[in-house]
Amino acid sequence: MVATALTPDPSSATTASRRLRVTEIFHSLQGESDSVGWPTVFVRLTGCPLRCVWCDTEYSFHGGEWRDIPSILDQVGGYATHHVCVTGGEPLAQKRCLPLLVALCDEGYEVSLETSGALDIGEVDPRVRRVVDFKPPGSGEVGRNLWTNVGHLGARDQVKFVLADRADYDWAVARIEEHALARRCPILFSPVHGQLEPRALAEWILADRLPVRFQMQLHKQLWGSEPGR
Ligand code: SF4
Question: Radical SAM core domain spans which residues (predicted)?
Fold first, then answer.
């Protein structure tokens, strides 16, 4: 596994402990999850310990800028938008993600967190809607799924499966059964952009009477793979 390599914060340890490495903060439409379509501010944190073969945010693996939480809140506030999504990379790879989420909730935002399912979600502020993106075999990272996360899921959270082929689909169906996921929270199925024909996935779901919600990434339909969208 490739480890995330971030350049150390050059400032003091005390200051560094209040900072996060941020790839970008931008304003767009939420492209997926139960908040799809809402104008949303995205805070994309830098770094990810996974390397999914179809990852579309590789530019977030390295670089970024050290920002303290008040400066992030200032920029988010400038967009005058109620919804905020903290994403990555893998946002929970930075321990200061947790106080950032608390601060955003304290400001009154509707906050969601997009996380890979490979890191523990148990310490995330309960006001946050957690979207847990468990990785199927086609991602190359199926061994990283942390299934103890299922025990933390509640009705406000969502589980997402991004599927590259029929083998991924069958694997996801088996995991839904194994972990009784439909009793915990909504389940989202999406095709890997450009790899799985969306219509095929829709027809499999209907044929199997699956209790899942089909989604295509709205932002990809509107803007393609343009960063900052
Ligand atoms: S977890 Fe997300 S950001 Fe990390 S490699 Fe996979 S798709 Fe990319």
Answer: 35-225
